[in-house]
User: Which sequence fits this backbone?
C-alpha cells in the first residue's frame, strides 16, 4: 500500500480529464467531466477546480458538500483509475479565485478574476479507492 499514493499522484498529474460527482436534491449522484484540477496540495488531500458560480454543481455542493472525484488512465493493455471521496466547498473569496486564475480564463469570465460567475471548487479528500491490474485497494487520506 505504501506505493499507492505515488502511483495515484502520477496518475492524477498525467490525467487529461477528471470527473466530479455531487449529490442532487433527491439523493442521487451526479457526475460531470471537468478539466483537471488547477492545483493540488498535500499529496492527495486538497484539489482546486474552476467553475461557474451559477453552475448546477456549485448549487448542489452548497446544499450537500459530499463529493467524489475520479481520474483514470487507459493504456494499451492496462487501465488504472482512482476515486477520491470527501467534501467540496464553493469558494468565492478573492484569494482562492486569484490562486488558480489563468490568463485564458477571461474567455469564460469576461470580467476577469472578479467576475461574480467565477468560483473555485475546493475538494478535500478523506479516502480513496485505486484500481489497477484487475485489483482494487481502498486507502485513507491523512
Assistant:
Amino acid at each position: 500500500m505504501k506505493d499507492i499514493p505515488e502511483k495515484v499522484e502520477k496518475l492524477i498529474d498525467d490525467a487529461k480529464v477528471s470527473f466530479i460527482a455531487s449529490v442532487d436534491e433527491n439523493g442521487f449522484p451526479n457526475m460531470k467531466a471537468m478539466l483537471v484540477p488547477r492545483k493540488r496540495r498535500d499529496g492527495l488531500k486538497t484539489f482546486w477546480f474552476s467553475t461557474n458560480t451559477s453552475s448546477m454543481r456549485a448549487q448542489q455542493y452548497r446544499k450537500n458538500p459530499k463529493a467524489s472525484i475520479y481520474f483514470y488512465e487507459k493504456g494499451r493493455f492496462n487501465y488504472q483509475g482512482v476515486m477520491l471521496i470527501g467534501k467540496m466547498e464553493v469558494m468565492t473569496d478573492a484569494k482562492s479565485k486569484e490562486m488558480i486564475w489563468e490568463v485564458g480564463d477571461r474567455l469564460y469570465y469576461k470580467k476577469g478574476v472578479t467576475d461574480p460567475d467565477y468560483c473555485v471548487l475546493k475538494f478535500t479528500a478523506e479516502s480513496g479507492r485505486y484500481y489497477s491490474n484487475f485489483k482494487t485497494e481502498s486507502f485513507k487520506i491523512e
